[in-house]
């Protein structure tokens, strides 16, 4: 596990507003339940082409997308990014044994504009605020952009598999 106690102080809490690299105003906010969010998220995820999917996510069909989104909203801690009325990013922390698994997606039309970086930091800040101490994820080895993003916020690789890496981050300082 990482021993970076500074993690507790470097993640902002939502809501956040910023201008992305494409000069678009973006708002990041928390989601406390599925009220109205399922439709907006399902619409965002329906736009993902096969090349935009990672490790089978998001699912391909609308009914499966809706089921998956409802599960994320019911079980996890969620933040979204909006550009105007359009949902353009979603990140969640899902309880998993003694950790939380991180998932993050940014709409293909909004990638490489700094939204993912702000979204993940806001999610981790929200996770700290709710008492999550440890976060885990897996990422495809060939997804260099995502791996770079995860490293930039403090994730460290803990295991390498044939096609993916496992990474982790301690959000709360270790008790002495």
Task: Describe what this molecule looks like in 3D.
- The protein is an alpha+beta fold and 176 residues long.
- The protein has one domain: Gcn5-related N-acetyltransferase (GNAT) (Aminopeptidase, 3-Layer(aba) Sandwich), CATH 3.40.630.30.
- It contains four helices and eight strands.
- An eight-stranded mixed beta sheet has the order 1-2-3-4-5-6-8-7, with helices on both faces.
- Strand 5, helix 3 and strand 6 form a beta-alpha-beta unit.
- The longest helix is centred in the C-terminal third of the chain and has 15 residues.
- The N terminus is likely disordered.
Salient structural properties:
single chain, 176 residues, alpha+beta, Aminopeptidase, 8-stranded mixed sheet, 4 helices, 32% strand, globular
Secondary-structure blueprint of this entry?
Blueprint: E1 16-19, E2 25-31, H1 37-46, H2 62-75, E3 77-83, E4 86-96, E5 99-106, H3 115-129, E6 134-140, H4 144-152, E7 156-160, E8 164-170
Helix pairs in contact: 1-2
Radius of gyration: 15 Å
Fold-level CATH name: Aminopeptidase
Report the CATH C-level class.
Answer: Alpha Beta
Q: Give the helices and strands as they follow along the chain.
A: EEHHEEEHEHEE
Structural class by sheet pairing and helices: alpha+beta
Total separate domains: 1
Number of continuous helical runs: 4
How are the strands of the biggest sheet laid out side by side? Answer: 1-2-3-4-5-6-8-7
* Helix percentage: 25-40%
Oligomerization state: single chain
- Corresponding CATH superfamily: Gcn5-related N-acetyltransferase (GNAT)
- Strand composition percent: 25-35%
The main β sheet shows up as:
8 strands, mixed
User: What is the annotated CATH architecture?
Assistant: 3-Layer(aba) Sandwich
Spans where pLDDT lies below 50 across 5 or more residues: 1-8
- The backbone outline, from C-alpha atoms, is globular
Report how far apart the termini are. Answer: 15 Å
* Arithmetic mean of pLDDT: 88
Overall number of strands: 8
């Amino acid at each position: 596990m990482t021993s970076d106690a500074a993690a507790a102080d470097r993640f902002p809490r939502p809501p956040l507003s910023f201008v992305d690299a494409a000069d678009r105003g973006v708002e990041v906010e928390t989601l406390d339940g599925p009220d109205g969010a399922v439709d907006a998220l399902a619409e965002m995820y329906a736009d993902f082409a096969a090349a935009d999917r990672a490790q089978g996510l998001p699912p391909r069909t609308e009914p499966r997308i809706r089921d998956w989104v409802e599960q994320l909203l019911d079980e996890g801690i969620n933040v979204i990014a909006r550009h105007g009325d359009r949902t353009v990013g979603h990140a969640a922390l899902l309880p998993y044994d003694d950790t939380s698994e991180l998932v993050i997606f940014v709409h293909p039309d909004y990638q490489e504009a700094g939204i993912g970086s702000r979204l993940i930091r806001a999610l981790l800040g929200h996770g700290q605020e709710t008492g999550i101490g440890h976060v885990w994820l897996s990422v495809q080895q060939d997804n260099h952009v995502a791996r770079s993003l995860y490293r930039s916020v403090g994730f460290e690789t803990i295991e390498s598999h044939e096609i993916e890496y496992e990474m982790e981050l301690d959000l709360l300082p270790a008790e002495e």
